[in-house]
Structures are given as structure tokens and as C-alpha cells.
Design brief:
The complex is a heterotrimer of chains A (372), B (330) and C (190). Chain A contains 16 helices and 8 strands. Chain A has helices at 2-6, 53-58, 66-69, 77-92, 98-126, 131-151, 171-196, 199-205, 213-219, 224-227, 235-238, 259-283, 336-342, 344-347, 353-362, 367-371, and strands at 13-17, 29-35, 38-45, 160-161, 164-165, 303-311, 314-322, 330-334. The N and C termini of chain C lie far apart (48 Å). The chains are: A alpha+beta (372), B mainly alpha (330), C alpha/beta (190).
């Protein structure tokens, strides 16, 4: 490494990693300037599936934009739902019934678990281990079935409405969710024994891909990326929304700043999310799931409003500017992975290609959310 | 007209060996898919024939009917010759492998040397193919393959030298002959020669994984890093031949391990030795190879080199010195 | 450190106005208006306090000036009407009021760049706005302070055509490489 730094990198070549590459999980392209297998410079090239959601938002009513939110982060769609409905509710001053908030949290946390499970499988796949992916999908399938029974879709959910949720859960859902929590709790030790404690995995992740806390701050990294760097920042605790203040859960923080820390944060978060779901199911109050005084046409008062939620990848913020009409004047979607990926160019300098790909995997990229 | 029966015998063996290699390549794919599926709690191929047993046939037909694309910019000669350069030495190696005391094409006195000589050509094939295909991923892969093979050839050969010292011959049939009479005679448990023999077997096995580019040392292909590594530009049967060569090499590696350490066609209990025991041991090793692949993630390149230079080579040398000392003393 | 202290420091850095907003209503705590030339100073204050950058974006206020004039005119007309009614009620003759008195040139509409900052340790989301005229949308870059602003500024440049002066690499990020249009401008027609 030091020898590399000393010798002038003259004979470099450019390697286009992507847009079709197994490790980029979609259509991200990274222009790598390489010296042998060492990365001299990395420049992510985005926008291959840019759909201009923000412009779409300006051209449709507040409610019509709702399905778009599920199509940005397809792995944690409910959190994006949550962010958008929350900001509109904040702007228009809509009260949400308590039961609806509970349902939002339950479904959203289950969705977070499914997102982390998929990341887990895909991350190990990036490292060359094939089998955990299918085990993770096996577990994830149960969540998708549960969520399908209540939201009606399996991936791009559009379940939340202004003032509540669209559908109430039934007894089967509660039973299914409890059974799933029990099942996953039983499987987590297996994952840890088979994967986390694997010597090859530890060698590949420990002290690889360091991201310092200062770097997180300068690039605005949030979510498991900053929590793996010792920053205790979770929107659910930091600016509590919905019913999170009533829930007893911890924010896993690891100080090591390496890929392993980010891995451990996510693995621990699965357990914390299960705890939240469990508590929410216990406390679930009776009542309506939809506020009864929601106007048909929403016209929030003039001004701009912000609301942030914690998605599986970090802080998702929506800034809306309303001019008092039935369409948003401006809709800014601050997606977490966009900021998380922006530090990639600096973080992977001087790294070996396989390590850089492990780092990329540990950032948990969801390209549609970056490109929006 | 007089034809030397030896030539007929050789021709028959040649056909047999090629058929064996091809059949193994085809059915190891099936085995790999089935085994992977069961490790991952799936079913695997099941539609074509019973238990998907005809799947390899269909795959073969598919590969053969595909167009052989030679991309613009490649070196056409190297590009076309490379798969053959991988496949031919693998088949040549089969010539000296004794499947039983009678089932051997050519019982060379330097059989072991011949196998390792052919095995090193395999790397050249990969290197030329990767270099000739003018693809950056392939070139990175080629550089990896060469340094990986150089690194792992050393501990492997040192271990083999140890065995040659114990056996006093490079004739594979004779090496097996010395191990007859039950598993306690096998080289892997030959503690009188060196107490490190099981370790030596482990080193040999790891080196074999690395030499055949199998996980967790599949640096050459490394699909999540290098797309398909050296094979990125290959399509149809060009890729198919590479694949067959890979599997043939695995068969060779497992066979050599069986011969050197596990007593070849010897029965563990001293009963009914024969070709079936050889195949059982060989396929068990192959099964393990596949099992490892679907269980472990890939190591990194420098981790792999570190393992070889810092751990395997010193241990194999210690084993070599220990063995020679013990041979001298006892 | 709390929001009030940050407010003081920001006001001292040359911000035009620093308003403490109602967090529960708006979702952010400080609404800071700065002129483009004071932007770097204000951002430096936040950097020194350990804030992290959340996002940079823009808002196109096309038609704002016309709307403002219409509003003032409507207000004036309403006032005149009230006055006239009052006068009529008093039995006096209505004073002649020129409703369309000054029809001078409209001031140019503005683009607004919006910067969101937040703190990892305590809750204080700071929104910095800076306004520039649409014909010359230039604002200094903050990417030397926050490298993360690099991408956000490129994105804002893509969408609004705001030029971040001093930005090291202001080429399209999300739009195609050769894009010469700015889709989030209100007068953009595809």
C-alpha cells in the first residue's frame, strides 16, 4: 500500500464498472482509474434510471404523487410512503388516528427487516458467497406475504394515505407477524454462526473500507453508514415522528468505521425492528385507521415544510413548497443513498478492487433511489 | 494387415479418456447444480429427465448451437486457441492416471511429473485467452491467475516432493501399490514418515482448490468483481470448452489427491480393491470441492497470496524437512 | 450549543434574516435568508459547529413578482374600495384613486437555492436560502467546505441551471452528459 503511494501512478487505465455489472446492483456506473488492481480515482456516474420524480410531483395533485414514492426505494417503499404522507399531513395539518400510526410503524418496520435481509444476501453475494442470499429470500418471502395481505402489493407499496392507512389489518396478520418474529429470531443465530463468524468474511470486512465520522459529516451520510462510524444518529430517535417515542428500542452503533461495523449495524437493526413490531402489536389500539375529516382535495397553506424519516438506508427527507394549490409547487426528495454514495469516490481511493466492491456493498445502494 | 494391439489399446483408452472427461464435465455441472440447490434449500434441475439427469445433454446442445462470437479487436488466433490449450493438457493428464491396477493408459515412470507439467499449461491457456480477448476484466483476471498459480504451485510441489521421498518413485501405480492394505497404510495417515501428513493433505487440497480456480479462490472468474474474468468475451462452445477444461482439471486434482494420499483404488478395509473405490474417493473429494464453493465467500487476492506465501509454503517446507529427517533417522 | 446560539452566530455572519420557525409545524428550526456573497460565511459557521449537510436544492419563483404586484394591487384596490365606501357612507364624493397607478417594469423573478443542514447530536435543522436573479443565477460553491455538496450542487445545476461559481466539476450528474435544459424551471417545456 505504501509502496503504491510512493510510486507515481503513471501507467493507469480506466475501468468502467457498470452500468451492467453484477456488483452495482442496478445501473450504476463507476469510472475507475486503476493502477493494476489499485484504485487511483473513482467517479460514480449516475442517472441511468433518472425519472425526474420531482418534476412529476409538480404536475400531479398531492395524492397522485403517492404511488411514486414507492418506486424510488423499492426495498423500503413504506418508509418513503411515510416520509411523503407525513410532510403533507404536517403541511395540511391533518391528524392521524393512533391505530393508523401503529399500523404504519408495524408495516414499515417489517419492510425494513425485509430490506435488510435482502441487503444481507446481496452483500454476501458481492463477496462471493452464494447461499445466504437464498436463505435471506426465504425469510423475506414471509414478510412479503404478510405485507401483501394488508397492502395488496409485494414490492412497490402504496399503503399509506393522508390521514391514515388504506386498509386495516386482521387477526391473521397479527398471528403471522408474531410467527415470523419468532422464526426470524430463531434464524438469526444461524446467520451469525454461518456468515458473521466466517473467517473469510471477517478478513474481508474488518478494517476494510474505513469511513470516518468526519467524512460522514462532510458528505451528509446517514443511516447504518454513519452508525457504523460511531455516530449515534437515527431519525427515529433524533426527531421522533409517528409513535416511535413510545417504543423501546436501541440504536446499534459501532465505532470501528469499517465494512464489518456497517454489517453489524444492519444485523443488529433487524432485531431492533423486530422488537418494535412486537411492542407495537402488543400495544395496538382499537379505532379507525383513517381520519374522518380529510378533505378530498388537499390544499396545504403556502409555505415550505420538511419531514424526515429513517429508511433502511438513512434519513429520507421531503421538502415541499406549497403555493396553496392542489399540486405541490416544489417537491424535493432528499434520498439517503445519494449522500452515502457521494463519499464513495473519496473512500475507495487507494483500495484494491475487491475491497472497493465490498465497501460499495456495505453502503447498501438502491439505484432508483439515488437516481430518482 | 498387422496392427499392434498396443496402438488399439491406446486408441481405445484415448476415446475412453476423452469420453470420461467430457462425461465428467457434463455431469459435474449437474452435480454442482444439484448440490448447490440442496445446500440452498432448492430443488435444482428437475425438468429434463428424471432428477434433471438429461439437463447436461440439453445444455451441451444449447452451447454447441450457439454462435461463436469473435469480438472485434481480439487476437483471433489466441482467442480461439486458448480454450483448447486448457482442455488438451487436462485430457493428456488422464493418460497417466491409474484408475485401478489394470486400468491405466500409459503407466509412465514419471507419471507424477507429467501430470504437473501438463497442469501448468492450463494456466497458459487462461492467460492467453484473457490476454487475447482484449478486455480489461479479462486482463486483470489473467494477472491474478498467473500469480495465483505461481504462488500455489510451490507448496503443492513441495508437498508432492515429500511424498515422492516417502514413496521413492514417481510412478503413480507404484505409489498406490505402496499404500495397499487398508486405510492405515494410506499416505494421509503415514505418521511414521511424518507426523504432519494430514496437514500435508490439507495443504495439497487447498492448493488444488487454488490451482483449479475454485471457490474460495475463484479469483479468475470472480463474477461479482470481474464479471466473468478471463471468460468475459467467450460465448457458446468457446466458453463451454473452458468450462469442460475446468471440470476436467478438478477431476485430475481429485484423482491425484486420491492417488497420493488416499490410497488410490485401495479399499479402506483391505477388501475388494478396485476402480470403484478410486471413483468413490475421487467423487467424494469433488463433492467436497463443490460443497466448499457454495458455503464460503471468496477471499481477496492478497489474502490468497498471503495464505500461500506466509502459511502454506513454510508449513510444507517444515513437512519436507521433517520427513527427510525422519526418513534418514528411521 | 443550541439553536438559539446558532441563530446568533448566523446573524453575526451577515445573514439577511434568521427566523426561528416552529419546528412541529414546519419541520425545520431555523430559516436563514442570506445574500449569495454571504453564503460561504454562513455555511462556514455551520461547519464549525459540526453540522452535516442534508441537501441542496432550488426553487424557481417564476411569476412571483407578478403575483406580488397583483397582490399589492388587489390590496390597494380593496383599500380604495373600503375608503370609497367609507366616503360614500359619509356622504362625500369618492376620491379619485388611480388603481393602476404605477405600471413600471416588473422586477426580475428569482431563483432560490435552498441548503438544508442538520446536526447529528441535537435537533436543529437549518435551512439557508439564497436568492439570485433568473438571468444571472450565480452563487458561490460550498463544495470546498462540504465535499458532499459537490453532488447536490451538480444536481441543482442540472435541474435549475444555477451556476455554482468555483465548483470543480459542474457537469450534469443525473441528466445526460449533453443536457442543456433545466427541467425544474417553471418555464421548461420538454
Amino acid at each position: 500500500m505504501s509502496a503504491f503511494a510512493e510510486s507515481e501512478a503513471k501507467e493507469t487505465f480506466v475501468l468502467n464498472l457498470g452500468p451492467q455489472h453484477p456488483a452495482t446492483h442496478g445501473v450504476l456506473r463507476v469510472k475507475l482509474t486503476m493502477d493494476g488492481e489499485y484504485i487511483v480515482e473513482a467517479e460514480p456516474v449516475l442517472g441511468y434510471i433518472h425519472r425526474m420524480h420531482e418534476k412529476m410531483g409538480e404536475n400531479r395533485t398531492w395524492a397522485q404523487f403517492l404511488p411514486n414514492t414507492g418506486r424510488m426505494d423499492y426495498l423500503h417503499a413504506l418508509a418513503f410512503n411515510h416520509g411523503y404522507v407525513s410532510v403533507v399531513e404536517r403541511a395540511a395539518g391533518i391528524e392521524v388516528p393512533e391505530r393508523a400510526e401503529y399500523l404504519r410503524v408495524i408495516t414499515s418496520e417489517l419492510n425494513r427487516v425485509s430490506s435488510h435481509l435482502l441487503w444481507f444476501g446481496a452483500f454476501i453475494l458481492d463477496l462471493g458467497g452464494f447461499s445466504p442470499l437464498l436463505y435471506a429470500f426465504d425469510d423475506r418471502e414471509h414478510i412479503l406475504d404478510l405485507l401483501e395481505s394488508v397492502t395488496g402489493s409485494r414490492l412497490t407499496y402504496c399503503y399509506f394515505r393522508f390521514g391514515g392507512v388504506y386498509n386495516d389489518i386482521d387477526g391473521d396478520f397479527v398471528v403471522g407477524a408474531r410467527a415470523f418474529i419468532k422464526r426470524l429470531r430463531g434464524r438469526m443465530p444461524m446467520y451469525h454462526n454461518l456468515v458473521t463468524k466466517n473467517i473469510i468474511l471477517m478478513k474481508r470486512l474488518r478494517e476494510v473500507g474505513p469511513i470516518s465520522a468526519e467524512m460522514c459529516r462532510k458528505y451528509g451520510a446517514t443511516g447504518p453508514v454513519c452508525r457504523g462510524s460511531g455516530i449515534n444518529f437515527d431519525v427515529r430517535k433524533h426527531e421522533p415522528y409517528s409513535i416511535y417515542p413510545e417504543m423501546d428500542f436501541e440504536v446499534p452503533v459501532y465505532e470501528q468505521c469499517d465494512s464489518m461495523a456497517r454489517y453489524m449495524v444492519r444485523m443488529d437493526e433487524i432485531e431492533q425492528s423486530l422488537r418494535i413490531v412486537e411492542q407495537a402489536l402488543d400495544k395496538l389500539p382499537e379505532g379507525p385507521v383513517m381520519a374522518d375529516k380529510v378533505p378530498k382535495i388537499i390544499k396545504p397553506p403556502k409555505g415550505d415544510y420538511y419531514h424526515a424519516v429513517e429508511t433502511a438506508r438513512g434519513s429520507f427527507g421531503v421538502r415541499v413548497v406549497s403555493d396553496g394549490s392542489n399540486t405541490p409547487y416544489r417537491l424535493k426528495l432528499r434520498s439517503p443513498t445519494y449522500s452515502n454514495l457521494s463519499l464513495y469516490g473519496e473512500a475507495c481511493q487507494g483500495m484494491l478492487l475487491p475491497d472497493a466492491l465490498a465497501l460499495m456493498g456495505s453502503l447498501d445502494l438502491v439505484i432508483p433511489e439515488i437516481d430518482r | 494387415m498387422y496392427v499392434d494391439p498396443e496402438i488399439i489399446r491406446l486408441l481405445a483408452f484415448l476415446i475412453g479418456v476423452i469420453a470420461f472427461a467430457a462425461l465428467n464435465a457434463a455431469y459435474l455441472v449437474w452435480l454442482e447444480r444439484k448440490e448447490a440447490a440442496h445446500i440452498q434449500r432448492r430443488i435444482g434441475p428437475k425438468e429434463v429427465g428424471p432428477f434433471g439427469l438429461f439437463q447436461p445433454l440439453v445444455d451441451g446442445i444449447k452451447l454447441m448451437t450457439k454462435q461463436l462470437i469473435v469480438p472485434a479487436g481480439v487476437d483471433p488466433v489466441l482467442f480461439k486457441i486458448a480454450p483448447i490449450l486448457v482442455m488438451v493438457p487436462a485430457i493428456m493428464s488422464f493418460v497417466t492416471i491409474p484408475f485401478s491396477d489394470t486400468l491405466v493408459a500409459r503407466n509412465l515412470d514419471i507419471g507424477l511429473l507429467a501430470i504437473f507439467a501438463f497442469a501448468s499449461v492450463n494456466v497458459l491457456g487462461l492467460l492467453l485467452g484473457a490476454w487475447g480477448s482484449r478486455n480489461k476484466y479479462a486482463v486483470i483476471s489473467a494477472a491474478r491467475v498467473v500469480s495465483q498459480n505461481v504462488a500455489y504451485e510451490i507448496p503443492m510441489l513441495v508437498t508432492v516432493v515429500t511424498l515422492v521421498m516417502i514413496s521413492g518413485t514417481m510412478n503413480l501405480s507404484k505409489i498406490v501399490g505402496l499404500q495397499m492394505g487398508g486405510f492405515w497404510h494410506w499416505n494421509i495417515f503415514n505418521f511414521s514418515a511424518s507426523p504432519l501428513m494430514p496437514v500435508a493433505f490439507l495443504i495439497f487440497f487447498v492448493c488444488m482448490l487454488a490451482e483449479t480456480n475454485r471457490a474460495p479462490f475463484d479469483m479468475a472468474e470472480a463474477e461479482s468483481e470481474l464479471v466473468a474474468g478471463a471468460f468475459t468475451e467467450y460465448s457458446g462452445m468457446g466458453f463451454g470448452v473452458f468450462f469442460m477444461g475446468e471440470y476436467a482439471n478438478i477431476v485430475i486434482g481429485a484423482s491425484v489427491a486420491t492417488i497420493l494420499f488416499l490410497g488410490g483404488w485401495d479399499c479402506p478395509f483391505g477388501l475388494f480393491p478396485g476402480v470403484h473405490w478410486f471413483l468413490i474417493k475421487m467423487y467424494f473429494l469433488i463433492f467436497t470441492v463443490i460443497w466448499i464453493r457454495w458455503t464460503y465467500p471468496r477471499t481477496t487476492f492478497y489474502g490468497l497470496l498471503n495464505l500461500s506465501w506466509k502459511i502454506l509454503i513454510p508449513i510444507s517446507f517444515v513437512n519436507l524437512i521433517l520427513t527427510s529427517a525422519m526418513l534418514k533417522v528411521f | 450549543m443550541n439553536c438559539a446560539a446558532i441563530k446568533q452566530k448566523l446573524a453575526a455572519s451577515g445573514a439577511e434574516s434568521v427566523i426561528e420557525t416552529e419546528y412541529a409545524r414546519k419541520g425545520f428550526a431555523l430559516d436563514v435568508q442570506v445574500a449569495p456573497e454571504h453564503l460561504v460565511a454562513a455555511v462556514s459557521v455551520l461547519d464549525a459547529e459540526g453540522f452535516f449537510i442534508e441537501a441542496v436544492t432550488g426553487v424557481d419563483w417564476l411569476g412571483e413578482q407578478a403575483a406580488l404586484r397583483k397582490e399589492t394591487e388587489a390590496k390597494a384596490a380593496a383599500e380604495a374600495k373600503v375608503k370609497a365606501e367609507a366616503a360614500a357612507a359619509a356622504g362625500e364624493e369618492a376620491p379619485a384613486v388611480a388603481v393602476h397607478a404605477e405600471q413600471g417594469e416588473l422586477p426580475e423573478d428569482v431563483l432560490e437555492a435552498v441548503y438544508d443542514f442538520n446536526h447529528y447530536e441535537y435537533l436543529c435543522r437549518v435551512t439557508i436560502r439564497t436568492r439570485m436573479v433568473r438571468s444571472k443565477p450565480e452563487v458561490p460553491t460550498i463544495s470546498q467546505i462540504y465535499p458532499g455538496a459537490n453532488w447536490h450542487e451538480r444536481e441543482t445545476h442540472d435541474f435549475f441551471g444555477i451556476i455554482f461559481v468555483g465548483h470543480p466539476y459542474l457537469v450534469p450528474l443525473l441528466l445526460p452528459e449533453d443536457a442543456d435544459y433545466h427541467p425544474l424551471l417553471k418555464d421548461f417545456r420538454p
